[in-house]
Structures are given as structure tokens and as C-alpha cells.
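Consider today's protein:

***
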Amino acid sequence: MSKPRIGVYPGTFDPITLGHMDIIRRGAKLVDKLVIGVTTNIAKSPMFSDEERLEMVRRECAGIDTDIVVTGFNSLLMDFAESQQASVIIRGLRAVADFEYEYQMAGMNQQINGRIETVFLMADVSLQPIASRLVKEIALYGGPIHKFVSPVVRDEVAARVEKIGRKGTVSL
């Protein structure tokens, strides 16, 4: 029996978008087990706590008929991937700007651990402009986000915007 192919899809998922879900569904087809690593990027200001984001990702992935594990991590990606016995890192690309950053990161990761490959998946064309950062910004200014996130996530973002205060009227 061969060793199962394990992939890691890391991100902050703050909030999880339809673009993330596209990459998760497609990435899960490439591996026997997909570990979704939810992390906090210290350069970003999260709208949701670590535990809220973990629960959000778990709920959104519940209907996918694949071996998916959602777990948090706060370490170097390659250390996390090694701890999960992963052979593949899955990353989504939206635009050329993503590619430049991801290409550099993949090169650094290759230097850290050459046994783990990075695989890039292009987001579906209709989902390429979606970014969590922009979803939050649109929501904070009262704009509609229903085209970018699931209805449940939309409601959670609306509730959070209501709690922290918005910059305009919300029409999510």
C-alpha cells in the first residue's frame, strides 16, 4: 500500500471566500487528504478570531466529500507541512501580483524543505478578483458581498461589522 498523498492549503481565511472554496474543492482532488491550515498573519488585522475562522472553514468544508482536516497553526509553513506529513503545498493564484509573491515564497520554502512541492491553482475566472481583505473593506463601507462569500459567511461578516461599527450603511 502506497503512502497517502497529503496536501496543505494554508491561509488566514478572514473570512473564507468563494475563491478559497474553489481552490479547496479543486485541491482536494489532487491529494488523498487535504489539511487546511488556518493561521494568523501578523501583518493583517483579522476581523475574526482564530477559533471563529477555524469553525467557519470547518462549516464551509463540511459538504465536501473528501478527507479534509481543518487545523490552526502558528509556525513556519514548512514546519507545519512537515508536521502534517505533507508532500504538497497548495496555493491559489488570482493575478500576476499573486504569482510574483507566491513564486518568491515557493522558492524560499524550497530552500527550507526541498521534499515538499508547491502546486499553484488558478482561481476560477469568475472568482479571481475576490480577496478577503477587499470583502472586509466592502462590508465595512456597507457594500454588498453576497457574490464573494456564502450566505452564512455573509451573515457572520454583517454581524461582525455591526458589532465593530461600520463606515456606512450595510446592504450585504
About this structure: Helices lie at 18-28, 50-61, 77-83, 96-112, 132-140, 151-164.
